[in-house]
Design a protein that fits this description.
heterodimer; A: alpha+beta; SH3 type barrels; 4 helices; about 35% strand; B: alpha/beta; Rossmann fold; 2 domains; binds zinc ion
């Protein structure tokens, strides 16, 4: 961090800064974190910030939140390059790259219309196993279909990139 | 030995190691020998009940499982096609499986949805055997195919293979290709029209296993392989009937094409065939598909015996 985005958004005292999000995907990251965010939190979003590594990147700052590792790793589905900084008293106490989870339950939907997870009336939760990190690929445990990064990002939708 | 087989589900051929499959083949050898001598001395599955849940119509696979169960002394219950069953009245798969689980010691399921067998296995306490889930897996067919290759060549690994036809929607072809990731072929040629290319997950499985494979034309591989695995190309896959007629011709094996084949070449087909293997091939020494079909019952007997004990 640092550089000019400091001019845009004030530093946070306690909370989480998610940095190095691929440009345009900040809202998708927030959407994935949705359930853990709760209402009324102060959130700052920087879209298309300068980045030496990525050219352009997005940054999300959430005040007063220290998410659980499982929730953080979910971010990797749409932002595999993201880093997470946990801030306490203006100091970064934890800094870590997100790791794509080995298994994803729910969240994603299988792309294959004749997958058992798409059959109406069956109480079955879609499950995907990580088969490749780069490029990011998840495989449906039930039907074997592979979801690539582009499909995952599309599914986890949110507004189109700005 | 074989303790790893007890109570086991059979969902995908990839669930098994080479050692386990070799155990199965040894058991199938024994069963086959006993059948040749006029049947098994004992009825090892006497008193057991096998449920045959064929949500999709099937003659060969269902009858083969039924024959296998009965020859081992087990009884069978079940249905073919959803007509007249509670499924037709709108019952979901989960409830049907729970019912069968309460009645039977093992459930064989065929269903048009991919992943249905795994789902059934998660619900049922009894072991579940996948008799074909949509286009995805047909593990017992792959077991029969490998067993036949072993019978013909004395081994499965280190041979040159070609798989021909519908590699996309054909579950037998897909399972056979996946099986080759367990027994390393020397070379694998894939022969298919562009519309019926193998699925992404099958290709990645081959790549991850380090199998050397390439796409090829039928004419050019016939002289290069020990095993030619032929599958049917279905008319329904082609919106344009003329396109189907054009494509079909280039994936059709005739006796004259086999003149330049290796002596050792065996031609396999999961059957039923339409005309992708010409009847002129039947009388050649390469025709192994009828023997392959005859291996269906002994291999399935061996499988049921290992899973249910006895
Ligand atoms: Zn699926």
């Amino acid at each position: 961090m640092g550089g000019d985005e400091g001019l845009v958004v004030r530093k946070i005292r306690h909370g989480t800064v998610i940095d190095h999000i691929p440009a345009g995907r900040a809202l998708r990251v927030l959407r994935l974190l949705g359930a853990t965010l709760g209402g009324g939190r102060r959130i700052a979003i920087v879209i298309n910030a300068e980045s030496r590594k990525l050219g352009r990147k997005d940054i999300v700052k959430i005040e007063g939140l220290e998410p659980r590792v499982e929730d953080l790793d979910r971010i990797a589905l749409v932002a595999p390059t993201a880093t997470v900084n946990i801030v306490r008293d203006y100091r970064v106490v934890v800094k870590r790259k997100v790791e794509p989870p080995a298994e994803v339950r729910g969240i994603l939907r299988c792309a294959n219309p004749t997958c058992i997870t798409r059959k109406p009336g069956e109480p079955v939760t879609p499950r995907f196993r990580l088969v490749s990190r780069d490029p990011l690929e998840y495989q449906c445990v039930y039907c074997g279909s592979i979801l690539g990064e582009r499909e995952i990002v599309e599914q986890l939708g949110g507004p189109a990139p700005l | 030995m074989a303790s790893g087989w007890r109570g086991r589900d059979v969902i995908s051929i990839l669930d098994f190691t080479r050692g386990e499959l070799e155990e199965l083949f040894l058991e199938a050898d024994k069963v086959k020998m006993a059948l040749r001598r006029g049947g098994l001395q004992r009825r090892p599955l006497e008193g057991k009940l096998v449920a045959l849940a064929f949500f999709e119509p099937s003659t060969r696979t269902r009858m083969s499982f039924e024959a296998a169960a009965k020859r081992l002394g087990a009884g069978t219950i079940g249905f073919t096609g959803p007509e007249g069953t509670s499924v037709e009245k709108g019952e979901n798969l989960a409830d049907t499986i729970r019912m069968l689980d309460a009645y039977a010691d093992l459930i064989v399921i065929r269903h048009r949805y991919e992943g249905s067998a795994l789902y059934a296995a998660e619900i049922a306490e009894a072991p579940v055997v996948n008799g074909g889930d949509g286009r995805q897996h047909h593990p017992t067919q792959a077991m029969i195919d490998l067993y036949t290759v072993r019978e013909a060549h004395g081994r499965v690994e280190g041979l040159d293979y070609a798989v021909v036809g519908d590699l996309r929607y054909g579950r037998a072809a897909a399972s056979f290709m996946l099986a080759l990731t367990i027994f390393r072929p020397r070379r694998l040629y894939l022969v298919y029209p562009p519309q019926l290319a193998p699925r992404r997950e099958v290709v990645s499985a081959l790549e991850r296993a380090g199998v050397r494979f390439e796409r090829a034309e039928l004419e050019e591989v016939i002289g290069e392989v020990d095993v030619l695995y032929v599958t049917r190309i279905q008319r329904e896959r082609f919106p344009d009937p003329e396109e189907y007629e054009r494509v079909r011709g280039s994936y059709r094996v005739t006796a004259s094409m086999l003149e330049g084949a290796r002596d050792s070449l065996v031609v396999l087909h999961p059957l039923p065939r339409v005309d992708e293997i010409d009847h002129s091939v039947d009388s050649t020494r390469h025709a192994w598909y009828f023997r392959q079909a005859r291996n269906g019952v002994p291999v399935r007997m061996a499988l049921l015996k290992l899973i249910l004990g006895g």
